[in-house]
Amino acid sequence: MSARISNTPALRFEVTARDGDARTGLLKTRRGVIETPVFMPVGTAGTVKAIRFEELESTDLDAKIILGNTYHLWLRPGIETIKACGGLHRFIGWERALLTDSGGFQVWSLGDLRKISEEGTQFRSHVDGSLRFLSPEVSMEVQAALGSDIVMVFDECAPGDASHEVTEKSVGLTARWAKRSREAFDQLQLADADEGRVEPDELSGDQALFGIVQGASHLDLRKESLDRTVEIGFDGYAIGGLSVGEEKSTMYEVLGDLAPRMPADQPRYLMGVGTPEDLVEAVARGVDMFDCVLPTRNGRTGQAFTSTGKINIKNARWMHDTRPLDESCLCKVCRRHTRSYVRHLYLAGEMLASILLTHHNLAFFLDTMRGVRQSIRSGDFPKFRQEFTGRLSANGE
Ligand SMILES: [Zn+2]
């Protein structure tokens, strides 16, 4: 009997420790076991910008899973190129786990440049200006060709301050698109369209599919969206549409209400969030997985995340500072280089500035999650949370 018609799951998730609503877990994917809570570096166009895969795999960082962006890869280089190489893992040279988003958020972010209908979203490519159409079916087809290990459904995001009426329509559309995503995804698995298939022990070898809960800041609609998503049935559940313009206190309120209602025995993924403080606060509310461009993007604009808060390396106050970017960080950059040197590189427009800041920032985010996991396992998470948040304001930048 084929694995695909048996009941073998595409991934397994086991909660290993709890401290309040915070939890640690083991997420078994077809490309390795991931300890949660986990931070996933963002590899938009098949590259985590300014860092090599060897560094992401090194013990310094040890990222177990990274993200790829369906929208960007679909437009360039296009799926034919990636299929010809045998899927995204082989195309980019990364054998660990990959999660791809659906492109829904990117096309939504295009604002006036896109037109949303029941069928899907029409927009102009930022690469060549051509008219393109993304729908649940197209997104599933592209993600199967990419062969990512975790696939996201195609959803519609409402702005953070959207009215109840607007959000209700958006939640309805997201539910109908989730159902179409599920059906298209299942057909593609049966048709062997998945370019990333492997034959692991105890798992089906198929791609896993996550549903996405929307509903802006309306708790009743969040709950409705959750119910409708769980009813369809997915391997994990994501929270979308946060950190899109709403107040931070609103985001924490939504998370506090929503995350503990999500299926306890499945992974919970907060999409596109956030600052180190946001990560710790979301873990406290029961979230297991995160991705965000902050450590990489802000690294390229001269910002370092440290245990005592953010620093802008271009500031004159670091000119003669012989300390590392973060005195409590043990990453390769902090072991070797001073703030003074990194500042010089940045001001001189040297590409190494981006490389060093990106490396350190990713180390800081990944180390924070290691600290979070350790504290949950030892029952010290409330203390960790309080001390971590308290220290972050020390630099005062
Ligand atoms: Zn460092």
Q: Which secondary-structure class do the elements indicate? A: alpha/beta
Question: Which range does the strand content fall in?
Answer: 15-25%
Outline the low-pLDDT stretches: none
Q: What is the 3D shape? A: globular
Give the helix level as a range of percent: 40-55%
Q: Order of strands side by side in the largest beta sheet? A: 4-15-14-13-12-11-7-6-5
Task: From the alpha carbons, calculate the radius of gyration and give it in angstroms.
Answer: 21 Å
| Cα distance spanning the termini | 60 Å
Q: Which ligands does the model contain, each kind named once? A: zinc ion
Largest sheet: 9 strands, parallel
Number of strands: 17
pLDDT average, as an integer? 95
Number of helices: 15
Characterization of the model:
With 397 residues, this protein is of the alpha/beta class. 40% of the residues lie in helices and 18% in strands. The strands form four sheets. It has a nine-stranded parallel sheet. It has a three-stranded antiparallel sheet with strand order 1-2-3. Helix 14 (351-377) runs antiparallel to helix 15. The chain starts with 11 loop residues before the first strand and ends in a 6-residue tail after the last helix. The model has no long low-confidence stretch (mean pLDDT 95). Bound molecules: zinc ion. Zinc ion binds at residues 325-326, 329, 331, 333-334, 360, 363.
